Fold this protein.
Amino acid sequence: MSVALVIFTLGRSRYITFPPVGSFLVDTCKVIWFALTNLLKCRRRVSEVPVASCFDRTKKTFGGPIPDMQVEDVKLLLKLLPVFLSFIIYWTVYAQVGALYYIPVDTD
């Protein structure tokens, strides 16, 4: 481990680093915001081009301000969100099961 640390430290001048640009959280919130505003607009008017969802209306190919790949990434994230939220419920219930078998002992 110490050999790897020395190698990484000595090779630091050869690394290619890029300054951070943007925020994934802010970009995700932008996509969701534009999709929600487009949802309200979708209900008011019928579009000329049939689109599967209001998230698709935020894509540049359909005249929206956001790149297509970024919209697809947010759509996949929202599809996976229920799975990850169910883990919270599962582990909460699992932790409660362990406490079920403790029997308090009366010390009188």
